[in-house]
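BUG-530 | component: ligand-complex export | severity: low

The export step for NA7 jobs runs without errors, but we want the raw record kept on the ticket for reference. Input record follows.
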Amino acid sequence: MELDVLVVGAGFGGVYGVYRYRQQGLKVKCVEAAPGVGGVWYHNRYPGARCDVRSVDYSYSFSEELQKEWRWKERYSDQKEILAYIEWVVDRLDLARDIELNTRVTKAHWNASTARWEVETDNGKSYSCRFLVLATGALSSPKELDFPGLDRFKGEWYQTSKWPHHDVSFRGKNVGVIGTGSSGIQCIPVIAETAKSLKVFQRTPAFSMPARNVPLSDEELSEVRDRYMEYRHEMRTGPSGQSVPTAGPGKPYAEWDPKELVARQEANWQLGGLALGSAVTDGLVNQEANDATARFIHNKIRGIVKDPETAEALCPTDYPVSTRRPCLDTNYYETYNRDNVTLVNLRKDPMVGLTETGIRTESGDHPLDMVVFATGFDAFTGAIAHIDIRNAQGEHVMDKWKDGPRTYMGMTVSGFPNMFIVTGPGSPSVLANCIMTAEVDIDWIGDCIAWLDSKGYQTIEAEQEAQDKWVAHVSDLASHTLYPKANSWYMGDNIPGKPRVFLPYIGGLGNFVATTRAKAAADYEGFVKA
Ligand code: NA7
């Protein structure tokens, strides 16, 4: 099939891409490997799955009508509601006819003589497109399960990131959960409610804060709904694409009276969400300021968790707060006070692997009926690595990314003409609001295609020098923060052999929008057009 644009992936970015490119008169199709739209929200249907960005922010901003028609039920939406929302958007905008489900792109090769991408899928379809838009997601490719003995385990096992569609019952079962990032922290309290016993196998403890999720009140909704478009514009030009209500403005650590700081932290903790860290404005660049937030959370953990040894094991002490993605929870620490829940500290008692009947650690065997793996994602590059994407020289994108991903403005790669990445490495995405970043990228790409067509150009490609500068800029910004002090998926540390490079752009969504727009306004500065 001959297309202007092929969008890969029908998550929030891809679905908007279909709408946006159709609106501007381009012939567009989207292919999606899953049987439904929603991307990560289609697959991550584990118990307790919920967004940690407020629902008024974690939704499309491109249409005032959509924003007014959909009424979010809760402050933080659960997976079911987010999936229902994107399905509704697809229906409402009549997008399904241009989305091919159950279709995985296996191959995309650039043909320099025709200036087209030739694309093949796992079900024998082929597409020829002028522009390839990879809306494949920053957190969509699950980390491989490399646990010795998994093939021998006779019980049930599940991955949070590939949760089955059938009901999974924990009732009467001895369950083990491996992993204490956001996914583990969300499912652990829910599993504990019905499991006979729950053992949490923790390697790195997380800093978690209460979400204090509640039904979304009319008052909270109308604060933004009454001026939605203006509000969304403020978010798009601000640092993170979302607002975090706090008990008051923050200030640098040095300006706080210690008692007043704790009082503010307490008020923020009671408000919930990400409010806590905002009391000190220099928490990500000043270790002392960061320590003040860490201390507060440690004290909370020690106050909530009754068993002192468990409480200590739950306190992160070897990385600064927020340098690994902070988690929002509902009764996470409280769950460890239940008689049926035990923490296994893998730092003291390392895992050997799985056996036929459970998990073996160095101290002995833990018999289990079920194991849940909440072990995370190959962030930013995983989904792209799985597609055979080749340029005219036959090189794969990953060949160019051996020492870490290199993009120009998170969206384009030198040597790969007419290929765009949505929320790619070097974009604000996971440090902002992924939906809004995706909209910004999709719009920028659409405007770029319209400009190329208006000028009679066939191709656009990042200049090597402009890309090098962008990569250096992204890494320079991160080097002035505390982020590199942590082992995290932001740095690629969770995947064995992945180069250690700070992946997202930390300069803020507003600056990203301003920079990318300025380059466009300067006739796509930093790009070769032909
Ligand atoms: P994360 O945040 O990457 O968490 C994965 C967890 O799994 C983390 O605690 C890991 O510990 C643990 N893990 C991974 N591999 C192992 C092995 N082999 N043994 C023991 N423990 C292991 O993924 P999530 O799915 O929770 O969240 C991802 C993002 O999705 C989240 O930040 C939100 O943005 C949404 P480790 O750190 O490796 O010691």
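Assignee comment: Attached the raw record above. Residues 139, 178-184, 203-204, 325, 346, 351, 374-377, 489, 494 surround NA7 (CB under 6 Å).
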